[in-house]
Amino acid sequence: MSAQYLAIVNPAAGGGRCGKLVEPALDRLRAAGIGVDVIRADYPGHATQIARQAYARGQRRFIAVGGDGTSYEIVNGLFPDAESRGRPTLGFLPLGTGNSFLRDFSHQGLEYAIQTLTAEKTQPCDVIRLIHKQGVLYYINLLSVGFAADVAATRKRRFKSMGELGYLLAVFSRLITLNRRAFPLRTDGQPELDRRPCLFLSFNNSKFTGGKMMIAPQADISDGLIEYVRWGPIGRLGLIRNLHTLYDGSHLRHPLASRQSVHQVGFEMEGPTDVMIDGEVLTLHCEKLDVLPSGLNVLA
User: Fold this and answer.
1) Residue 194: half-sphere exposure toward Cβ, Cα within 13 Å
2) pTM of this prediction?
3) How far apart are CA 106 and CA 101, in angstroms?
4) Residue by residue, what is the 3-state secondary structure of 22-49?
5) Which of 85, 184, 259, 288 has a 20 to 30 A CA-CA distance from 233?
């Protein structure tokens, strides 16, 4: 039997879909000779607690069973301890709603994830660290502010139970009240503070968000860099005409869009704002982003 994994299961992921599908998926792993212990995460933040306690006991191999939010919680249980005490390994059984991170590697979802777990196909993955006024958070997918975060917040607060349809409804809801504003920042210690208004800013480790939106087509999970995507103050009609380009990455050809690869970002915001971080919506006073190169092994 191969190395033992701890599978942390969020049965509520995917509107309860995860709880219905998890046992057959785990049975397939066990049939392939993969040793799996299972702990259920029953409330927000529980997966973080489980991962932190297991890592402290010496566990180093984990499976996130759920969606991007489940992976995010587990990563925040592994770090900051994993910065100094040994690189953990994280696999996935994508049974949630978005499952954006794995789309960098395959659109086959669960089938691909089971294949990589069975083959123990690991690769290094950067971890991005967010320092904010109240503490520190870690992520492996992306952080967005502006329109993308507004959409995620609206989906969470109004359309959470409606899956991908809820995401589309949130997009059109935010189109009606389109808000283009500045998020003052500087990249890599540049002297000039960027105060230009924008539609959204996105700070990416991987390519996709919202399940199928390719926000950062040039992102690389192991290059030691943050892929910073900016879309300037496009108008409502222009956004409607170009909304489809967010799904294939061609939005970067728009004259108001830009990208750059950076090592760190310093924010000088006046107060807290909604952010979307690996599928989770939080209200934070952001201060700094930097990278932990190859901080994690992922099975992907």
Assistant:
1) 16
2) 0.94
3) 10
4) HHHHHHHHHHCCCCEEEEECCCCCHHHH
5) 288
CB neighbours of residue 220 within 10 Å: 16
Q: What is the pLDDT of residue 17?
A: 86
Q: For the beta carbon of residue 119, count every other beta carbon within 10 angstroms.
A: 10
Per DSSP, the chain holds a count of helices (H) and strands (E) of 8, 19
Euclidean distance between the first and the last CA atom of the chain, given in angstroms as a whole number? 21
| Residue among 115, 114, 77, 94 nearest 296 (CA) | 77
**Element housing 277 (H / E):** strand 273-277
SS3 for 187-241, per residue?
ECCCCCCECCEECEEEEECCCEECCCEECCCCCCCCCCCEEEEEECCCCHHHHHH
Side-chain-side CA neighbours of 224 within 13 Å: the count stands at 1
Q: Tell me: the pLDDT tens digits for 18-41?
A: 999 999 999 999 999 999 999 999
Which is nearest to 221 in space by CA: 120, 109, 102, 117?
Answer: 102
At position 114, the amino acid (one-letter code) is: I
Nearest to 8 by CA among 87, 74, 86: 74
